[in-house]
Amino acid sequence: MSEIAATNHPTHLQHHFSEMAQQNDSAKLGMWIFLLTEILTFGGLFVAYAVYRAWNPDMFLMAHKALDVQMGALNTVVLILSSVTMALGIRAIQLDNPKQSVRFLVITIGFAVMFLVVKYFEYAHKFHVGQLPGKFYTYTGIEGTNPHIFFSIYFMMTGLHALHILIGIGLLSWVIRKTRQNIFSSQYYAPVENVGLFWHLVDMIWIFLFPLFYLIG
Amino acid sequence: MNMNTSQNQTAFAAPHVLPLKIYLGVGALLLILTGVTVGVSFVPLGGFNVVVALLIASVKALLVALIFMHLLWDHKILLIFFVTAIVILTIFIALTMFDTMERGLVNPETRSPIQQDAIIYQNQQQPANTNGTGGH
Asked: Best exposed site among B18, B62, B87, B103 by fewest CB in 10 Å?
């Protein structure tokens, strides 16, 4: 019996799992538990947003006009496209096509960089005119009380999100390198899949950030 | 213990591959919904603007979670986890809003203790102390 087990043992099956399906399920379960903590991390910021918007509905309405809807919409489209290419990259490795997988993952990184470039131009403009959080706020073009609160929340939420994009680029590069080394196949691609889950979550958070900041009223 | 059969048949996991059409279709749907949410935001609906925006965003997020993140076909425990996080977040937001919005009903004087002396910046015609509280 031990001989059969030894000959049929998949290369990537760790000895503490009885079969690949179990190992993959465990990896995914762990990733999802991490994603829950991510949802709750951003959740705290969403609560801050809800409280301050409820307290200052008019200020939020006036302050959000300082954001560029076109830039925000462009970034939404870019992230959705990156999610599609991420999913297609996973599909390619499921079909034992590492070359195609690498291509899709590289395109995904391309979209991620594009997102950050757009974000850079938005941030640079706000730094330039002084639409900044808290005491750094020096802009005079917005009517109402305490518009710096809007920009505090804006920079916290989009900043944390942009940090996640940066981490995502790092994770994607790592997965691309391992795919190039032919480590992944239809039998073992849990890291690709888990990086994909992370990437989709980052996209999902932006799906909420976009209407909440750029499309108020 | 049926070690033989389990080793021979399920030791290697067969991935569940979705057809290309599904990914492209969901991607197109997400882009269309993005267009809709931008368009609707320019229609004045008063308080309903934020409701519509969040509704569309939730549909989009659900599409990403169920299809792209494969929750529809994965082990149901993952879906339960995801729903749990959403429920906890909803409780978090709802209870906080009950507190912060209805605090004045209990004690009008402590209704908004934070904002009263925290006007850092103001740019409007009215005197500073008429509408510092935001309120309802």
From this structure: B87
- Domain with A32 in it: 21-214
CATH no. for residue A196? 1.20.120.80
Gap between the Cα atoms of B88 and A39, Å rounded = 10
Q: What is the rounded distance in angstroms from the CA atom of residue A130 to the CA atom of residue A125? A: 8
Report the C-alpha gap between A215 and A207 in whole angstroms: 12
The C-alpha of A77 sits at a distance from chain B's nearest C-alpha, in angstroms, of 6
Q: Which residues of B touch A79 (CB under 8 A)?
A: none
Q: Domain total for chain A? A: 1
Nearest to B53 by CA among A153, A76, A117: A76
- Judged on CB neighbours under 10 Å (0-12, 13-18, 19+), A13 is buried
Tell me which amino acid residue A203 is: D
3-class secondary-structure state, position A185: strand
**Bridge-based pairing state of the strands B122-123 and A144-145:** antiparallel
Q: Show me where the domains of chain B are located.
A: 18-73, 74-104
ipTM of predicted complex? 0.88
In angstroms, the Cα distances linking A22 to A93, A171, B42 are: 19, 24, 50
Residue by residue, pLDDT tens for chain A (217 residues) are 444 555 566 777 888 888 877 888 889 999 999 999 999 999 999 999 999 998 888 889 999 999 999 999 999 999 999 999 999 999 999 999 999 999 999 999 999 999 999 999 999 999 999 898 888 888 888 888 888 999 999 999 999 999 999 999 999 999 999 999 999 998 899 999 999 999 999 999 999 999 999 998 7
DSSP 3-state of B75: coil
A47 vs B133: CB contact, 8 Å cut-off? no
pTM of the model: 0.86
In a domain, A2, yes or no: no
Contact (Cβ atoms closer than 8 angstroms) between residue A98 and residue A184: yes
In one-letter notation, the amino acid at residue B10 is: T
Which of A146, A149, A214 to mutate against chain B (most B CBs within 10 Å)?
A: A146
